[in-house]
Amino acid sequence: MAQKVRVFLCKPGLDGHDRGVLIVGQALRDAGMEVIYSGLKQTPEHLVEAAIQEDVDVLGLSILSGAHMALIPRITDLLAEREAQDIIVLAGGVIPAADAEVLIRDHGVARVFGPGTDTRDIVTYINERLGI
Amino acid sequence: MSEARELYQKLLAGDRRAAAKLISMVEDGEEGAREALEALHKHSGRAHIVGLTGSPGSGKSTLACRLAQEYRTRGKSVGIVCVDPTSPFTGGALLGDRVRMQELSGDPEVFIRSMGSRGALGGLAVAINDVINILDAFGKDYIIVETVGAGQVEIEVVKYAHTCIVVTMPGAGDEIQAIKAGILEIGDVFVVNKADRDGAMHTLADLEMMVETKPGGVQAWKPPVVATVALEGEGVDLLAGEIARHYDFLKESGTLTKKIVGRMKAEVLAILSLQVSEAAGRALEDGGEASALVDRMVERELDPHGAAEELAKELDL
Question: From residue A45, how far is each of A9, A21, B82, B245 by CA, in Å?
Fold first, then answer.
């Protein structure tokens, strides 16, 4: 049996918009991945614990609240604390380009997929990163 | 040190990431997991395994969450395995049970694992059993296995749990009729969830009636019917009480040993049937050592039973 790609899609912080993350979830599922969804309004601590228990390859963070510069570094710090930096961290939602640059350069985020992204690009990116 | 050895040693020391990694190895059917499972076997056998099944939308995930919370207030640790269907077309799955279990997600004493049914050649039963055993060796007091119960494999798994809970809800039309066939026999405790809805009394009465007429004699366990409103946590303490009462019954009546024996047999059979069907599948493939059998069947020289017999000989079964 081949290794199955497992992705944990999350909604950190106080943000009630999940249309985007659910569409990404469907696209990844249809690409043959196992997608676990966190539900709304999760704390970084809860998400990191869940990502570890579920042993995911990818953590997808959807944030449209503007709190990404507070939440995402907290999440990647916690992953580092748990020695789980091998989990690929992707972000999406409303994240200005300048912030995206900082998140990628200083906070362990692999890629930021903003509004208008073709879901196939996300699938391709994940598969390439995992060597599939 | 092999990867599996390192993982199970860390697991026995309480490392949650190691437990999670080992579960992935088992799910992916990696050979290396064998060594770990063998070593962990003698550390398992202490958990109370609770199967939870029922139709989609009956509130299984919410109920599993509330039950786990109830056990946590009693100072017990909990493992939860949620099995959701994998698409047979794409191989993908959307596993959403965690959405209903948010209150548990920060608690390190609760280990939740979402599984896609994947479903190649009976691999699911083997994988679920292995995951249960891993969480058992990991020291969880209760292991809740939640499945839709739509497939034979899922039914088998909850059937061999120590206590099997069947969840239904009011107003689901012919719900009870559907339950009658097959699931009634395996339920040790029945739950009417969403019991604040119209028709709950009717559903409760129907179920109680069916349980009353269940064969078994005076010594047998009479499955209780519990009304719950999982969202509000109502009736969950009663449910936990009935589950405990069932476990006591199993121990006092000697049925627990029978259940354990049944579970062990089922585990061996699941592993063996997986191995046999995989080996047979490979042999029958184009260019496989037994592909000539298929050609003879196509030519109507050999019937399927005859082919199976010859294949069994060829595989030295």
Answer: 15, 20, 21, 36
